[in-house]
Amino acid sequence: MTETISTTLPMTRDNPFDPPAELGTLRGETPITRLRFPDGHLGWLVTSHELVREVMGDRRFSARSELHHSPMKRGDGPPSQRPPASPGMFIGMDAPDHTKYRKLLTGQFTVRRMNLLSERIEEIVLAQLREMREQGTSADLVTAFALPVPSLVICELLGVPYDERHVFQEDTATALKLETSVDEAMAAFERIKDFIRDLVRRKRVEPGDDMLSGLIASGADLDDEEITGMGVLLLIAGHETTANMLGLGTLTLLGNPEQLAALRADPSLVDNTVEELLRYQTIVQFGTLRTALEDVEVGGVTVKAGESVSLSLPAANRDPEKFERPEEFDVRRPAAGHLSFGHGVHQCLGQQLARIEMRIGYAALFREFPTLRLGVPVEEVPLRTDMGIYGVHALPVEWS
Fold this sequence. Notes:
By secondary structure, this protein is α+β, with helices and mostly antiparallel strands. Helix content is 46%, strand content 9%.
C-alpha cells in the first residue's frame, strides 16, 4: 500500500449530522493512512470498521496515556505529549493495572444491576420533564433535560451531592474545549480531582450507599488517590457522554421527521433507535488513541513500535463494508456492531447505563411532548465542533 500523509486530522463538518467528509474519502482509498500529529510525530489514522476493531482488540497496541501523541492541538500553546494516567484512571492504562481497577467496578455495572436502576432513572426523567413543562412552551433541552438527567443519575450512583454539580460540569466543559490551553485544561481537571478527593475523605468517615463508599469498603486496600481517579473517570464519563447523546439524538430525530414519526407510531423501536443514534452520531469525534508496543502489521502496512494510531470511530461507524446505506439514519436498522462503546478489554464499562438512560429519556420525552419541535432552524443550533465530545451546546425547543 502506498503511504499517504494527511497533514491534519479531518475536523470540518458540512452539516450537523455527518462527520467530516474527508474521513469517508480516506476510508474508501486508504483505510489506514499516515497522519502527521501536531507535535511532528508521524503516526497513523485508521478509518475502516474492520481495522479499528482489529486494533482495539490487539493487546500489542497500548492504551497508556503517556505513550500517546495527541492528534489535536490544544489552545495556543505548543503541542505536548500526555502525562501518565493518574492512579485509578484505568482508561489510560494497560494490564495489570487496568485489569485491577476495572474488575473492582465490573460488578457495579452489570446489565442486571443497571436494569434494576430503571425505575429510579424513569423517576428522574419524568421529574425533569415536569420542570421543563413548567417553564412554559419553550426551553433549552440541554440545560432543562439532557444534562440534568445523566448528572443526577451518576451523582446518585457515586454519592456526589447534586447541588454541587456546577463544580464538575463547568470544569469538565473547560477541560474538553479544544480552545482551552493544556495548562488550563489540566487545572480544570485538577479541580475536579480536588472535589472528588475531598468527597472520598468525607466518605471514609461517614460512608453511604454509593459506589465511592463501596470502593472504600471493598477490601481492595485502595488509597484516596486511586479512589479519586476512579471517581473522576466515572463522574466525567457518566454525565458528559450521555448528556451529549440525549441532546444530539433529539436534534437528529427532530431533524428527521419521518424517522421520528416511525418511532412515535411504534415505541418498541426505541431500542433500535438508541443503537442507530449511537452509530449515526458518534460523539467521540476525533478518535480513540492506541500506541504500538512492537511492530504490528495492520491492513497491509507495518505500524512500528512507538507509533501512535488515531482510531476514527465516526468513520468506522459509517463504513459501507459493515453497514448498508451507512449515511442514512434509519430507526429500523438493526445497528448491532457499532463501535461507539469501543471494543476489547477497554470497551465502555458504563454502556448499559447509558443505553437505559437514552431509552427511557427518548421514550418519555416524545411521549410527554407530542408536539415537540425545534425552536430554531437546524443550521442555527450551536454545535460542539469545538469540543472533544461532539453534541450541541444548546437545543432550543418548543411545544404547544
